[in-house]
Amino acid sequence: MLGREILAGHWRAGERIPTESVLAASLGVAVGTLRKAVAELEQRGMLERRQGSGTYVRARAGRVKNIYEFFRLELLQGGGLPTAQILAVDAAPLPKALIAHEQPSWRSGWRIRRLRALNGTPVALEEIWIDQRHALTPAFSEALYQFYKEQLGFWIARVQDQISVDALPAWAPAELGLQAGAACTYIERQAWSNSQVVEEVSRTWVHPQRARYCARWP
Amino acid sequence: MLGREILAGHWRAGERIPTESVLAASLGVAVGTLRKAVAELEQRGMLERRQGSGTYVRARAGRVKNIYEFFRLELLQGGGLPTAQILAVDAAPLPKALIAHEQPSWRSGWRIRRLRALNGTPVALEEIWIDQRHALTPAFSEALYQFYKEQLGFWIARVQDQISVDALPAWAPAELGLQAGAACTYIERQAWSNSQVVEEVSRTWVHPQRARYCARWP
DNA sequence: AGGAATTTGTGCGTATGTATC
DNA sequence: AGATACATACGCACAAATTCC
């Protein structure tokens, strides 16, 4: 769980994470158990511990080498090559639920609705908002984060996901294989750019019999 | 301490070492502490653990890459390049103290007396017995274990050291910088060849102000 | 085939030492 | 000088895998 949190970017590089006792208490485990987990992450190079000081998130050596660095869905049997099909692009207000955390600096945004597939199988429905001042050239299609970096000049450095369950919205296409109102794994995301401003908020409904949320590590 | 035991060859490759509770008790530590130590050695590739079965000594991947694999002396400040100067070679009976463990298959042996130096500084006196049937060509001088391997066709696979304190013998040369009778670190060694027979027994007196016994690991 | 004993795996809670702030 | 936070260690309980009878 800790590794997932780190890769999901809940703490930024160099930041000090909560102390052993606080983390252990919040996760409901004993300090010794937490220490073992942290030691493993330290050995993997994800954390750095300094006695008397704290535990810090280590900066990744090779930055954003993988365009799917923040992609968190996988088939139930594991893996799957992600693709996306755009359903609609329009201007629409952000749902209040999506700005519960940090407020984006922009108030009006593009709304992008996509159908996500893994290995060609539709697995999820995405609804994404980005700053309306960005020019949406036809170049954006599959890898949105890559589009940000190459066309818009910033890149996603950190994301925060919140996972729950929600009913599939009415605009879901039939290809997803679920009826509107069906219970789906539901992900709300805020994404921060390299300049540490909220560049994107999104929500995703995942077909629970086809894919799952899974933070992976290298 | 465990790593030293393993590198000293007190258990042979593939052998199962005592259980956690036994080892912990014999070392006077708690089981958890021992587990941490064993986990570290496992990570270093020296041990292999199997749940429900036991803990086993792993065969070294690259065998005897270092001719000083079983060399256990170092300067007080650490390290030092080992050299040896032969003082005498003759045939002499094995002291009873040296055959207290496993009996060598041979009874009459060559006795080699050497002065050991580290970085040119004399640090120890060695007295070594090997099977008298071996032909001592002039090739043997510095690295005796290498001589065994290249000239005699076997190699040392395992040694067992026993460390105590003993008085320096009368035949010690003045260069060692200690008077006869001076208290020295004293090492008795039995060395097993790849065919698992005792090929060598030795004893070493170490100048306590110049060097120390130290099992090192890669 | 099955069950008991053995051995490592995981986890809890606590106390104390040491480095840093 | 004191508070904070990680490092090390102890002892215990139970789970899971293996081994042995």
How many distinct beta strands of chain A?
11
CATH topology of the largest domain in chain A: Chorismate lyase
Strand order of the largest sheet of chain A: 5-6-7-10-9-8
Taking the alpha carbons of the first and last residues of chain A, their distance comes to 15 Å
How would you sum up the global shape of chain A? globular
Q: Explain this structure to me?
A:
2 copies of one chain form a homodimer. In chain A, the strands form 3 sheets. Chain A has a 6-stranded antiparallel β-sheet with strand order 5-6-7-10-9-8. In chain A, strands 1-3-2 form a 3-stranded antiparallel β-sheet. Chain A contains 4 helices and 11 strands; from the N terminus they run αβααββββββαββββ. The first copy, chain A, has helices at 2-7, 20-27, 31-43, 144-152, and strands spanning 16-17, 47-50, 54-57, 73-75, 82-91, 109-118, 121-131, 156-167, 183-193, 198-206, 211-213. Chain A has 2 domains: 2-57, Winged helix-like DNA-binding domain superfamily/Winged helix DNA-binding domain (Arc Repressor Mutant, subunit A), CATH 1.10.10; 67-215, 3-Layer(aba) Sandwich (Chorismate lyase). Chain A is an alpha+beta fold. The chains hardly touch. The structure holds a DNA duplex (21 and 21 nucleotides).
